[in-house]
Amino acid sequence: MIKHHPSSKLLAGYATGELPASIAIGVAIHCKMCDQCQANVDALTAQLADQVFDAELTEPMAYENEQFDLASEAEAPMDMDFGNMIAAITADDEISEQSMVRSTSITVKGKNFELPAPLNNVRMSNWLNIGKLSRSSLNLDEGAIHSHLLHIDADGEVPTHTHKGFEITLLLDGSFEDDMGTYHPGDFIELNGEHNHQPKTKEGCLCYTVADDALQFTEGFHKLFNPIGSLLY
Amino acid sequence: MRYVMKQSTVESTRNKTIAPATKTRPMTTTAKESAPPELSQYLMAVAADRDKQAFAKLFAWFGPKIKRIAAQKLNNDAAGFDITQETMTRVWRKAHLFVPEKGAATTWVYTVMRNVIFDAMRKNKTQQAESLSDDIWPIEEQISEESPFQDHLMTKQLGELVKKLPPNQQEALTAVYYKQLTHEELAKQLNIPVGTVKSRIRLAVTKLKQQLGANND
Ligand SMILES: [Zn+2]
Questions:
Q1: Which of A112, A175, A227, B130 has a CA-to-CA distance to B69 between 20 and 30 Å?
Q2: pTM (2 decimals)?
Q3: Given an 8 Å threshold on Cβ–Cβ distance, is A58 in contact with B6?
Q4: CA torsion, points A64, A69, A71, A73, in degrees to nearest 10?
């Protein structure tokens, strides 16, 4: 059912760990819902692992060779530190338990939603309600990049708007429509400044959104309310 | 004069099966080198027996590489050292979560390292100290808490293998995975330390994984 996936660029960035947390969270949530992207990420990760470790293969392996005298002088102190490190690490016999899969649930407009695990430890603001729209901002402290949970009540819509930067919308629950079609849970929609975007929902929906810039409304009446833009996405 | 062979190697060797490193291998033969296949065995030995020798071997292979990769990413030598310590500590403590059927040891250690680096970089850039990486890249979910073999759990093959385990491991496995007791509940029931329950389960799971892996080949 999922028709919209993160670009291969985002999947690769997710595998390397180089995306900002807000975007990585979006990709992570999508991958939990999309086996195909998860499989791509797994393959990419295996490749990356080969690359980063293989690139390092020409380095000496003092421990394995048991020939410390072959290591250059300069590396001797480091070897000693590593020896201490090994001793310190293995002195402690604790094992890490698997963290129980716990989930956070939220209530918006009387409806209960279970949040995906990647949001478990993200701090959220209180919900702000503007008509049929409710929004909670996530505190990830990433400067110009803002992420939110956005709930639109049944028959609600977001005024037509455009972005200077990018906008990612990941549908978590319910469905919505825009001029490009109908979206279902798991759909990952990436828009840039060129798109006009006017999501409407018949049944109501909950989205995870990331944008790097306040949206700008482009349609008559709503222009009056442009300041609202910064409250939404 | 240090190891001359900087570039020539890697691509061409990727698909070849590399014989286990021999003791006499001089360090300059790296042209024929790829990740040694024993890494995965070392990880499993750490998981099953807290094998320090095996851990030292893992450290010898990964430690210096992680240090250089991390120092480069964070642009800071001391950070490279810290990240090596944190990554290898997690390897020591989480080795039982490694599932050889799912991928190479290098891939698993890479994901552990990537998560540590991600959290460290976020700590540098933001005011926030929460670690998000294990939520974003759930290493631990590769085995779910409910059952490491959900798909196979009912299969005859696994049932047969479980019967071959020592009785105390069978008992622990059955209690936790079939009867859904917590480690603590089982420990209380048997009047043994929780640590003992954990290590019985760890040993059992490791053995099953090894055997399933062997049979699937
Ligand atoms: Zn997908």
A1: B130
A2: 0.71
A3: yes
A4: 150
